[in-house]
Batch of 4 targets.
Target 1
Amino acid sequence: MKPNRITGSALARYVQCEASAFLEQDEQPYSEAARQGHRIHTPLEYWSLGARVEDIVARSHPDVRAQIPSLLEGAQRAEVEPLPGLPVAEVTFAFNPLTGKARILGAGLNRDYSGFNEGEWGGTADVIGLHDGGPAVLDWKSGKWIKPPRELWQMRFLAVCLQGVLGAPSGVFLAIHSTRSAKTNWQMAEPEDIAKWRQTLMNVGAAHAEVMAGREPAPTLGSECRFCASKNHCPAWIGNAP
Ligand code: SF4
């Protein structure tokens, strides 16, 4: 059975339901909210790569141009310094769910995932760095309702990867910067949280390997079904949708 690519942003669904990693997927419409999020995200990426504010404003989409200076001001308050020797923005990690080992695939890859090894999962951090003396992962989000960072599997995955790359069993600061409120929600992922999340990822990886070896994947209904691109191909969803 051929798996879909497993990414940090879809991990919450894979943790709930192993079948969603294998069933056929329909193409999802690109929503206006996603389009607006991208328009805001791109200038923030330029900023974290060191571009000048005037240049970023000039190159930003007209729909969001007026917001850019205050967004950048909010992002600056997030207080993330570079980690010596590591890239800062748009950092893609590769994670091997069978060994639990992580590495940095590159920065600013622009969706070029050709460097992944067989079986590795990927996720991209908007910014990694140092906050208050400790390693940190910062993500920008433009949605209305944003969960705290420790509750997001995407952020948990990035914490596991960053700690793995640094090779020290330290905690990792997690932060979501809301581009709507220009506020940053910081939380600390303690070493024991990260160890637990790594173990869950490895359990999902082991189950994934069983399916690859021939076991039938089990669909599991839950809150993540709402965003699943495989609904129309899922035996559990068809006829049972709430
Ligand atoms: S619709 Fe729900 S149960 Fe079916 S594959 Fe998607 S996440 Fe799994």
Target 2
Amino acid sequence: MKGLVVIALFFCATGLAAAQDAAVPAAKATEAEPPPSACQLRLTKVAVFKPIPLLAGPGECGAVDVVLLEQVMLPDQAKVTVAPPATLRCAMAEAVALWLREDVAPAALQLGAPLRGLDNFDSYECRGRNRVHGATLSEHGRANALDVRALRLANGEVIGLTDVNVARGWREALRASTCARFSTVLGPGSDGRHEQHIHVDLAERRGGYKMCEWDVREPVKETAPQDGQNAAKLTEPVPLPRPRPVASVNGASPAKKMRWQRRW
Ligand SMILES: [Zn+2]
């Protein structure tokens, strides 16, 4: 009996020691974690995300204060899921969250259903612009850019941002608000590499110049005119004309255009 008590005490002590051992690294890890940035504290109110303390290399790639943006909360507390989650600098994640809350979600209601999802085509990726090896580092390599292909609505509809069958006026309004919010917006007509998705980033340029190159295209002539009610249907990709060297936006763009840097 006495032996049993000794054995029991031994295991209790061993278990306690193991628990203490387990607690030590956890405490160290907590100490090592940087406190949330001011940006992350703001982002907590409008998004669901995981902090990524540091993205480093290779080469020039990387960023500090990065988050994995999973969902954006709308003012009515409904959530918009970013799929797959986007790796972005916190400032860029915040810009995307506010864009979805203030511009995209109200616009989606005009198409007949609340916004529930955003298709992330690309976020952080260490590469040159347009995946050209040796080219100037893309803003994607700084976690400062997002490529968006489509939105998802609560009624199951998928809205392609470059889909010519989506009401033209709706796409023009979205382009205007998107170009007002981001410093670079590239879409169809920009360089031939953004025909089916929209690139947005927060690149900083001298003088605060912005690029807004997104042609809102018409359906091909054979297609019957669509009205605003049924225009939201995503259809098969329509063959597109060759990108024009100068985007024609009828002077509607709120942003200045720059021609000396066109590779993204
Ligand atoms: Zn891009």
Target 3
Amino acid sequence: MTPFKKTLLTSLAIVAITPPLALAEEAQQVTFKSVMQGLLTDTQQITKGIVLEDFALIQQAAEKIVDHPKPDLAVRMKLVKAMGSAMGKFKAKDTVVHNSAVKLVEAAKAKDMLAISKEYQVLVNGCLACHSSFKEKVANILK
Ligand code: HEC
């Protein structure tokens, strides 16, 4: 193949795999709901890991919860503004889930199923506690 043809093919390949700008921007949008859907997927993976005694899966999924993406800055700004003084309580609920995910990672590394199942309860109760206090309020702010 001549160098020219090679370059041409490479350029074509790059064009083919580069999404249009609009699509790329859309893919970067992180909504509050998309973060939550990610948390649900991760929690489901932890459940699967517990049932199958797959410690690597539990660790991996709990790490994802620890490092879950933040909603876009605009979303967070809107939330902070509308929540006002309730933001502290909201953050505290988030911290419960975060800390329990950190402990789940440790328990999975230690292959300690008893600690895992205990912490799993804390995690899921943490999801429910925030939902019962804030889900409706925040959904109304962000809709
Ligand atoms: C700090 C508060 C908070 C915590 C902790 C929290 N959530 Fe949520 N969650 C919310 C709020 C608020 C909504 C509603 C968002 C909206 O409607 O825009 C929500 C909505 C959801 C939804 C519905 C998303 C949709 O598409 O409508 C799922 C699923 C969900 N959460 C899963 C979880 C799981 C799983 C956990 C625990 C691992 C969790 N959440 C922990 C606040 C929280």
Target 4
Amino acid sequence: MQVYELNSLFDRLNRLYFDSQLKLIVRWSHRSPPKASRSIVLGTYNDKTKCITMSRRLNSTLVPLYVVECVLFHEMLHAVFPREEHRMHTEKFNKFERMHPDFERARKWEKESIKLLFEKPQKALPFVS
Ligand SMILES: [Zn+2]
């Protein structure tokens, strides 16, 4: 079932924050990350393919729109601010990310409620934000 339409969310953010300059592909992941995965990955950006992959677990009525939007926004920023040496999230990146009005409450939701998305929450699954 489609809860969120990624392309329209992308277009909206692109217009609001990037002057519609970003040309990227956005899609849901096909399957969940492997069970052995040590962290929960909500989104990834591949600079070679210019493709953002969003965890399909976010395509759920359990997840508020602002959370999906902030994860997508975060991945879009990776297309704008490339990594510097070993830093994925540079100061410029972090500063820009906080411009999103829902940044704080999205982070809060992720910390408190992300476990809702996992039917069988593994014990002590570390969460990397
Ligand atoms: Zn990131």
